[in-house]
Write a structure and sequence with these properties.
The complex is a heterodimer. By secondary structure, chain A is an alpha/beta fold. Chain A is built from three helices and six strands; from the N terminus they run E-E-H-E-E-H-E-H-E. In chain A, helix 1 runs parallel beside helix 2. By secondary structure, chain B is of the alpha+beta class. Chain B has three domains: 127 residues, Rossmann fold; 222 residues, Phosphatase 2c, domain 1, CATH 3.60.40.10; 157 residues, 2-Layer Sandwich (Heat Shock Protein 90). A five-stranded parallel beta sheet of chain B has the order 2-1-3-4-5, sandwiched between helices. In chain B, strands 6-15-14-11-12 form a five-stranded antiparallel beta sheet. In chain B, strands 7-8-9-10-13 form a five-stranded antiparallel beta sheet, with helices on one face. Classes of the chains: A alpha/beta, B alpha+beta. Chains A and B meet through strand 2, strand 4, helix 2 and helix 3 of A and helix 15, helix 17 and helix 18 of B.
Chain lengths: 101, 561
């Protein structure tokens, strides 16, 4: 349960994994995970493989992240979403503003 | 010694018996060859003194038959003969006799010959015993190896190295492979690959296969991350293997669309990502210690993500490949292998087959390999597999469930998650868990925020996202006596579930948006998508009892995604 973050060896990727439930109870943990991205303009990868539950507050947190990171990152990818989770992202049109793979 | 005397002359029998008995041997006398054969099993002689000229069956005829009866253990036969002709003596040896003694003879000569042959007999006997023991052990070992082979075979029965996008070439030095290559598709169409090389080869390292294979298949099935796999495998081997044994390993995950590789390499030669011309575009070097060495708290599970294209192929191999001996006794080496790879890929479609054939030719030329050899090619072009949905039988009882949630529950745990976790235990609802959570969570929060806590949607814009939730938390702590009631109806026959949420809140609430269709919302908008989501997933949403009750219906016959 919770949020883990890990930079790649070359500092070019920051992988944030969210396990279990993704909602406003993670709001601070999640914000901390993408703070201090450094000067390397990393690619942010949100690994949703173990995200089982999410609600609209999670969507809000993702949008918040995008807004606050702006150009300090190379891009944001949402990866490994289960089909059920992916459908929620698709219906919310997140595919237009994030790369979902 | 037990000595059988075969002679038709009573006088000789008496003379020999007397002589031999006096020096401590046991003697049994018979009159001819046939009698000798008849008593053989009973008397079990250790040495035979055989006359040549006898009625019924003479010595020359008897000797080979006695030898045959004696089987694996050497039975010394000494011919006793009055004939002194050279031909006769030669014949004695030809038919299987071991020695001869011409009458008359000095007793001391007989004694010396008996002693010498007794020693040979002893040696032969102990050799036969040892052979028997050896055979027993060898049979037992063979049986045990068959059992282990069977177990390993079963443990690997789930292995999915036979996918159309995976090619493999595996050879081992002994029956048991110290290299371990595993593949498995994950739940979202991702593909996992494990290439391992245990220290040594043969049975001992092969037993490490069992725990790794079990963990690998289980974790792949659950779609766990490469980093979690590395941590788990390391822990298992750390507990299991002796200190001087470990497993170099490469763990790879290919994303469902084939656009991304996630890698952890501990001690395996650089895995290569090559393009269609065999040129190396990425290297995945070993950045970690092999599995089974580093204690849990110091273990580094950091992975690398690589973005790849459909025309690229991942090449993974163990050091057996680069240590392959060439005709000039030099090793193939990493450079040599990379050149082999490039040349083969440039020749066209069947690059892998070409490389495999060349490696096979090297093995054949040398007649042997020194280390287990594993080579895998994983093509980065993937079609997400078509999910075949198992038809879910709604074989449950219909029910109505009332859940009352007060402040105590809200502060202590996440009531919605608890509720959905419980509902998800029913097979028919399991695959709808994520969607049901979304519906329950949105509705519950709506009721709690608006009816109970009197939060206004516009506050989100005014306060901003995080401060809205802080304010919500503050009001929650101050409000002592609220309660929210959820009444769930489940009708398995109709594949239908509905719920009504209400509260003892003061203000009836009915947002304007719910009266109309979900508006074309701006994707960038931070708020207001909750209701839109409910309306998309639910069959029906309506406010009842003048905004006191939120009623939601959900059709379970629709696929959850």
């Amino acid at each position: 349960m919770g949020v883990t973050r890990e930079f790649s060896a070359d500092q070019k990727q920051l992988v944030i994994a969210i396990k279990g439930k993704f909602d406003f109870s993670l709001v601070q943990e999640f914000r901390q995970a993408y703070s201090h991205v450094g000067e390397t303009q990393p690619l942010i990868i949100i690994d949703l493989r173990e995200t089982e539950y999410l609600d609209s507050s999670a969507l809000g947190m993702l949008l918040n992240m995008r807004k606050s990171l702006g150009n300090s990152v190379r891009g944001i990818q949402l990866i490994n979403a289960r089909p059920e989770v992916k459908r929620i992202l698709d219906i919310s049109r997140f595919d237009k503003i994030f790369t979902i793979s | 010694m037990k000595i059988l005397v075969v002679d038709d002359q009573k006088a000789n029998q008496i003379m020999l018996e007397g002589l031999l008995t006096s020096i401590g041997h046991k003697v049994h006398c018979v009159d001819n060859g046939q009698q000798a054969l008849d008593v053989f099993a009973e008397v079990k002689p250790q040495i035979v003194l055989l006359d040549v000229m006898m009625p019924v069956l003479n010595g020359f005829e008897t000797a080979p038959l006695l030898k045959e009866l004696s089987g694996d253990v050497h039975l010394p036969i000494i011919f006793i003969t009055a004939l002194d002709a050279k031909d006769t003596l030669l014949r004695c040896l030809e038919v299987g006799g071991d020695d001869f003694l011409s009458i008359p003879f000095e007793p001391v000569v007989l004694q010396a010959k008996i002693n010498a042959h007794a020693r040979v007999r002893e040696l032969s006997y102990s050799l036969a015993q040892k052979n028997k023991t050896l055979k027993w052990h060898s049979n037992r070992m063979e049986r045990e190896q068959t059992i282990v082979r069977h177990m390993l075979h079963n443990a690997l029965s789930e292995n999915e190295l036979d996918k159309p996008y995976v090619k493999s070439f595996l050879r081992s030095v002994s029956t048991f492979n110290g290299d371990l290559c595993l593949g498995k598709e994950g739940p979202f169409g991702n593909y996992y690959l494990f290439v391992g090389d245990f220290t040594g080869h043969g049975l001992a390292p092969a037993t490490g296969t069992l725990p790794i294979a079990q963990a690998f298949f289980g974790m792949a099935e659950r779609g766990m991350s490469v980093s979690d796999m590395a941590t788990e495998f390391n822990l298992r081997l750390l507990k299991l293997l002796p200190d001087d044994m470990f497993c170099a390993a490469l763990i790879i995950e290919l994303s469902p669309g084939g656009e991304r590789l996630t890698c952890w390499n501990g001690g395996i030669p650089d895995a290569l990502v090559i393009n269609r011309h065999g040129q190396i575009e990425h290297r995945i070097p070993s950045r970690h210690m092999a599995l089974g060495i580093v204690p849990e708290e110091q273990f580094d599970s950091q992975v690398e993500h690589l973005f790849v294209r459909a025309d690229q192929t991942l090449i993974a191999f163990t050091d057996g490949v680069v240590e392959m001996q060439l005709a000039d006794d030099n090793m193939l080496g990493e450079r040599g292998f990379e050149k082999l790879l490039a040349d083969a890929w440039q020749q066209g479609e069947n690059g892998f087959a070409t490389v495999r054939d060349q490696l096979l030719a090297m093995m054949e030329a040398k007649q042997q390999i020194h280390d287990d050899v594993s080579l895998i090619a994983l093509q980065c072009q993937r079609q997400p597999p078509v999910r075949t949905e198992q038809p879910v039988v709604h074989n449950h009882l219909p029910f109505t469930l009332t859940v009352t949630i007060s402040k105590r529950e809200v502060m202590r745990l996440d009531p919605v998650q608890e509720l959905v976790d419980s509902l998800g235990k029913l097979d028919a609802l399991k695959s709808h868990k994520t969607t049901l959570y979304l519906l329950f969570a949105e509705c519950f929060n709506n009721i709690l925020d608006h009816n109970v806590l009197q939060m206004d949607s516009t506050m989100k814009d005014e306060l901003g996202f995080e401060r809205y939730y802080l304010e919500r938390q503050r009001r929650l702590e101050q409000n002592e006596h609220f309660c929210v009631e959820i009444v769930i109806h489940y009708l398995p026959e109709e594949e239908f579930i509905s719920f009504d949420i209400s509260s003892n809140g003061l203000a009836p609430y009915s947002p304007k948006a719910s009266t109309g269709k979900a508006s074309e919302s701006n994707e960038e908008a931070l708020f207001g998508r909750g209701l839109q989501l409910i309306e998309t997933f639910a069959g029906k949403v309506e406010w009842r009892a003048e905004g006191q009750v939120l009623h939601v219906e959900y059709d379970l016959s629709r696929p959850p995604f």
